[in-house]
Design brief:
Layout: H1 3-23, H2 37-41, H3 53-64, H4 86-98, H5 109-126, E1 133-137, H6 140-156, H7 159-163, E2 169-174, H8 179-187, E3 195-198, H9 208-220, E4 224-231, H10 243-253, E5 256-260, E6 285-288, H11 290-293, E7 301-305, H12 308-315, H13 346-382, E8 385-387, E9 395-400, H14 407-423, E10 430-434, E11 437-443, H15 451-463
Parallel strand pairs: 2-3, 2-4, 4-5, 5-6
Antiparallel strand pairs: 1-7, 6-7, 8-9, 9-11, 10-11
Helix pairs in contact: 4-13, 5-13, 6-8, 9-10, 13-15
Amino acid sequence: MESEEFRRHGHQIVDWIADYFDNVEQYAVKSKVAPGEINNKLPQSAPNQGEPFEQIMADFNQIIMPGISHWQHPGWFAYFPANNSPASVLAEMLTASLGVQGMIWDTSPAATELEETVMQWLRQMIGLPDTFTGVIQDTASTATLCALLSAREKTTGFAVNQKGFTQTLRVYTSSQTHSSIEKGVKIAGFGKENLVFIDTDAQYGLIPSALENAIEEDIKNGLIPCCVVGALGTTSSMAMDPVDEIADICAKYNAWFHIDAAFAGTAAIVPELRDFMKGAEKADSFVFNPHKWMLTNFDCSAYFVRDPLLLQQTFSILPEYLKTSATNQVNNYRDWGIPLGRRFRALKLWFVIRNYGVEGIRQMIKKHLELANIFANWLKNDGAFEILAPVNLSLVCFRYIGKGISEDGLNEINKDLLEKINLSGDVYLTHTILSGKYCLRLSVGQRTTEEKHIRNVFELLKENTR
């Protein structure tokens, strides 16, 4: 593709993106294609000759777009937000154009030094003390794996890196935390049987006394407490673990304390919402995702550690071809995580923070919390619905209750209700199970969501439960 052709098609794609932002609400939120439908429309082998760009774009619109579920739709209330913004998209275009591979400082000094700066900004924005140092990972799952590996090496004096496991190390978390904890435990070699699930209270937060009892029981049996993973905003219900108490228990037993605040961490940008963060300053590591609720397109995960040297020692390998004269003067982020190669993720974060400002981001968060509470109040005042978990931040977990219906019956009714609502194409909700009860989740976090969109959800609920 020559420069002039690239310029012409580039303008067309920017126009397409702008039109998409303007018209995304016209699409069905959740794709309605059947399994295999997209694949059946695609050739089963690659073309031998290059094809016109116009044809590629036509196939994109006709084949690919029908199979897209629209996370940027204002009626997206499923799972968690993964919002973007015009500033983030434009920065991503620059990132792709530069093609930076930011594994070490020498491969692009600006990539490293901008990351240092924006991570300092983020640390200040969410209220973590300057005893923490940040690095961008791709996802919270990767950040959690980094925490587990660091905990493993700290506990064993880096012996596992050298010799493999010779002791049984234990990891503790609640049954409400993210599935990436179990995956990380398996990848890091602890073994699934050494992941200990701790009971939760009525609000689905981890019970500190149950954690301490489990640790003491393990010690009696010759097992070694290694790491505790706490959640600020569990996946199912946005439950908040009492991290202040958990941190003290971890300090008592010399266990690493990692906090997963993937979704909820963004809320700490609003100072008056930071109560849930009390004790986070005592953690060994902390992660939240700007690519969820902070207007920065996927992927961009902010991982903070109190001991960056320990993180580097866990991962550092220095082959001859990566040695440079600047090695001892700079951060080489290849030593701060799992992959050698690193995308220039700091650029889009920089664009977003500068374009919106801290106050602009705060206003978006406050609006989403207000919408969630408005919706929760509608449910409470209606009488036909039950809220099944505390409304923490912007997530509402609820179900239809009816009258004189068994628990099994209610579960089936609410499952059917969810399917009917999502068939409308206007909104997309997902579900979870809390205390054996099937419940619907409304997660508010899309940047374009307004009160009319949550009103639409409520009207669909009423229409389908009459």
